[in-house]
Structures are given as structure tokens and as C-alpha cells.
Amino acid sequence: MEINADFSKPVVIHSDQIEWQPSPMKGVERRMLDRIGEEVARATTIVRYAPGSHFSAHTHTGGEEFIVLDGVFQDEHGDFPAGSYVRNPPTTSHIPGSETGCTIFVKLWQFDLADRTQFSKSMEAELGAPVGGVATATLHEDDREIVTYSRLEAGATLTSEAPGGIELLVIEGSVTGNGEVLARHDWLRLPEGHRLFVTAGDDGAKIWMKTGHLRFAAAPRV
């Protein structure tokens, strides 16, 4: 399966226009944003857990990175409420689920396979003081990528010309730019050489962004 698998092209997804698709586990549905592969895949996905649903135990051979968009995600490592950012590197395993239900944005098979750093953070707790109406937290940084979380006041702008491509998810609020209006849970991917320039709407915006990583985009090695 290939979905938005040409990383040389810009992609915009308005997630509320995508139908929820069932996963192999009852009560767990997903909206696929990009994908190379079948159930083992390099994938970027919004996943919704119904109350009381869970996946069976599994190992993330290629790593897993996610943010909790609403509700509380749970596994044997703890409870992760909305606003959590979690990195489970290659070789880690867990039994994910949610007693109350939750929605997450998750990326699979996009780690350096030698990475073994596992952590979780509250994105809001990491924010610095605002500059020009934008408060930003660096959630993760290595030789491959930089992951940030930004909170924009109404009318504030967020820009990037980062090498290696840009990916953005609107967590709350809305932004206008790059020829699009992006609202809650909308997703944008820009290849290397493209500039990001977005302005927050009247209610401001909360933005998750990753840069540099598209240089390493490829199908998983299994």
C-alpha cells in the first residue's frame, strides 16, 4: 500500500475529510496520512481508540513516535493524557489501549534504527517564553530531525526554511498559509526547498512540527 509516498511533492490533508478505517483490532480506527507498506509500514496516521479498546502486545522494530490529541492513552509504562509527546525507539514493546478512549497522531518506522532513547514529555510544560506571539518547545533533536511544539497567539506567524523537509500538524486552532487554511488535526508536508509561512487564526493555534527527516524517508526494512 502506498499513500502520499512521493516525498518530493507537497501534501495537505484535511483530516475531517478522510473516513475512519478499521484497524485489525476491534474498536481501533485510523486515518492514514502517508504510508509505505501494509500492516508493517512506514506510516503517519491519526488513530482513534474507543473506550476500553486496546492492541495486543507488540514490538516496534522501527520505532514509534506519537502525540496524544485527546483523551488518555495507556500502556504498561503509564497513562499519557492529551498533550503528551512519546518516543518509543526500535526494539521497545508495549500493550497500548485506552479505558476512556483517546486519539493519537502516530509515526512508525521513521527512527534511526540505532536509536534507543525512550521518553515522554508534556508539550505544554516544555514551552519557552513567547517571542513575537509564538512560544516554542524543542521536544527532540538529533542529526536526522528536529521536533517542536509551538503555541501561537492570534495573528502570530510561524516560518521555516529548514533543510530536509517540513511536516506540520495543527493540534488546536487554525493557521492560514502556503495557499491553505489548516484547522484542527489538519496535516501538511513540504519537501526540501519549500518554505513554511503560516499565520494563526482568531483563536490562535497549537502546532506540532518536524523538520529535516524527509531526507531519510524510505520503506521499512523487514
Can you give a write-up of this model?
It comes from Vreelandella aquamarina. InterPro entries: ChrR-like_cupin_dom, RmlC-like_jellyroll, RmlC_Cupin_sf. Residues 9-111 form the ChrR-like cupin domain. This is Cupin. With 222 residues, the chain is an all-beta fold. It has two domains: 18-120, Jelly Rolls (Sandwich), CATH 2.60.120.10; 122-216, Jelly Rolls (Sandwich), CATH 2.60.120. 0% of the residues lie in helices and 55% in strands. The protein contains no helices and 21 strands. The chain has strands at 2-3, 11-13, 21-22, 28-37, 41-49, 53-54, 58-60, 64-75, 78-81, 84-88, 92-94, 97-98, 102-108, 119-122, 134-141, 146-152, 157-160, 166-177, 180-182, 187-190, 196-211. The strands form four sheets. Strands 1, 3, 4, 5, 8, 9, 10, 13 and 14 form a nine-stranded antiparallel β-sheet that branches. Strands 2, 15, 16, 17, 18, 19, 20 and 21 form an eight-stranded antiparallel β-sheet that branches. Strands 6-12 form a two-stranded antiparallel ribbon. Strand 8 (64-75) and strand 9 form a beta hairpin. The model has no long low-confidence stretch (mean pLDDT 94).
